[in-house]
Amino acid sequence: MKTISVLHYDAFTEHPNQGNPAGIVLEGEKFNESEMQKIAEKVGFNETSFVLPSNIADLRIRYFTPGHEMNLCGHATIATVFALKANGHLPEKETILIETRAGILPIRINQKEQSTPSIIMKQIPAQFKEFNGSRKELAEAIGIAESDLDVNQPILYGSTGIWTLLVPIKSLHVFSQMVPKNDLFPSILKEIPNASVHPFCLETFEGEATMHGRHFSSPFSGTIEDPVTGTASGVMGAYYVTYINDKGKNQPIVIEQGKEIGRNGKVSVTVSDKDDQLDVEISGTAVFVKEIKIILE
Known about the structure:
Blueprint: E1 2-11, E2 20-25, H1 33-43, E3 47-52, E4 59-64, E5 69-70, H2 74-86, E6 95-100, E7 103-110, E8 118-123, E9 127-130, H3 135-141, E10 156-159, E11 163-168, H4 185-188, E12 196-201, E13 211-213, H5 230-244, E14 253-257, E15 265-274, E16 277-284, E17 286-296
Parallel strand pairs: 2-3, 4-6, 11-12, 13-14
Antiparallel strand pairs: 1-2, 1-17, 3-4, 4-5, 6-7, 7-8, 8-16, 9-10, 10-11, 12-13, 14-15, 15-16
């Protein structure tokens, strides 16, 4: 039997047991892929990250849900880099490169004006694809009526590393009524059956927030809902400047998420034009919660 130390950090918050929990294994090179998957399943968080050496970047990160490996995960990246910085495991420089299955991404660490570092993560350029499925079935799959959908904005698949379906909703009060039927998603999301579903609206609880969202997991991931989502927040920012307000470019777009399930958190997104593409960065902080011991037989 092996006993593995997993660090529990909450991302996109400075308060333990808020934001989005991530499991972090600092010596990921000690485990094969099957063991990583078993560890992630036992931890049970939406994502557990494994830190490994890299020949082409400062470090490599692999991300596992309880059900499968992910190409990229925003909140787990923020939490992992924060943990590495806090434990003195990073080189003394402002920008590091991380190797992921989505590519090599630069991560900046800003600690100049605050005691708690802010981790700034560049994502891959935003992409969008049409959704041609049933709006009625989609609404029912997240527990609302078709009339709750905002017809003034398009329902689109979006990605800055991971595909999610962006679903505009008219009113904030509807979010507390949502109960997802995740097992129905693949039959409705025919273009990208393994995508997650991300309803959002322009009404917010917090005055500083630009948008409010929830994030319902693909059934293949083994989880139901992601409390505060980095990759989906990034593509929400790109959606905002493309379809809602192009004056939002180069300005902080604040995404709030998690209130309905008691895990409040915020993600700051900055979107800019670069080489005819939308350049997306997210930023946030994290907090250590506890060490978890996992036993592999």
